[in-house]
Write a structure and sequence with these properties.
The complex is a heterodimer.
Chain A lengths: L4 E3 L2 E4 L5 E6 L6 E7 L6 E7 L2 E4 L8 E4 L6 E5 L8 E8 L9 E2 L3 E5 L1
Parallel strand pairs in A: 2-11
Antiparallel strand pairs in A: 1-3, 3-8, 4-5, 4-9, 5-6, 7-8, 9-10, 9-11
Chain B lengths: L3 E3 L2 E5 L4 E7 L6 E7 L5 E8 L4 E4 L2 E6 L4 E6 L8 E8 L5 E3 L3 E6 L1
Parallel strand pairs in B: 2-11
Antiparallel strand pairs in B: 1-3, 3-8, 4-5, 4-9, 6-7, 7-8, 9-10, 9-11
Classes of the chains: A mainly beta, B mainly beta.
Amino acid sequence: EAGVVQSPRYKIIEKKQPVAFWCNPISGHNTLYWYLQNLGQGPELLIRYENEEAVDDSQLPKDRFSAERLKGVDSTLKIQPAELGDSAVYLCASSLGAGSQETQYFGPGTRLLVL
Amino acid sequence: GEDVEQSLFLSVREGDSSVINCTYTDSSSTYLYWYKQEPGAGLQLLTYIFSNMDMKQDQRLTVLLNKKDKHLSLRIADTQTGDSAIYFCAETGGGNKLTFGTGTQLKVEL
C-alpha cells in the first residue's frame, strides 16, 4: 500500500515568488494534516482537514498561506508571496479518522528554500 | 498551551541500550507517540502508548509512561547504527492535534 505522497521533494525559489506543495494521502484516509517543521524543531500543525472541510486552521498564517482539499482526497498548500522565513520542511500527514486514537502517517515532506 | 520537552542529544555505543526521555504538560493527553526521523525523510511512527498504560513493549522498544510526573521514555535495546536518527515524542490532547517535542538526536557509535 502506498504511503503519503508529497511533491515536489525540494523547491528553491526567490523571495516574493509563489510556491505550491501537493499531497496525496493514504487511500481511504479522511483526515489530512499539513505541518511546518523548522530546522531543529518538531513539526507544528498548520491546518487539518476532515474530508474537504478545514476544521483547524488556527495556526495557518492566512495573509500569505492558503490550502485546499476540494474533493476530500489530495490537497495543495500555497504560499504567496514567500518570505525568507518560510524556508522549512512542509510535511503532510493523514489518518483514517479524526479521533485522538487515530495514528497519523507522514509523507517525506517538501524542503523549501527561499533565497 | 501544551508543551513537550526533550533533551537534544544522546550518544551511545552500538549494542548498548538507549533511553530517550520526554516530559509533557497536558494532563489531558490520551495518546503519546514516538516518531523517528532519518535525514531528509518524513516521520516514521515507531510506537505509541495509551495514557492508561504504564508500559508497552514492542520488540527492541520499551515505552514507559509515568502519568503522575508527565514523563515518557523510549528504551531501545541493543542499539544499532541504523537507529541513528532524531526521535520525536508527541502527545494528543483533545481531538487529534499532535504536539511534538523538539526531538532528540541519537548518535550510535561503533
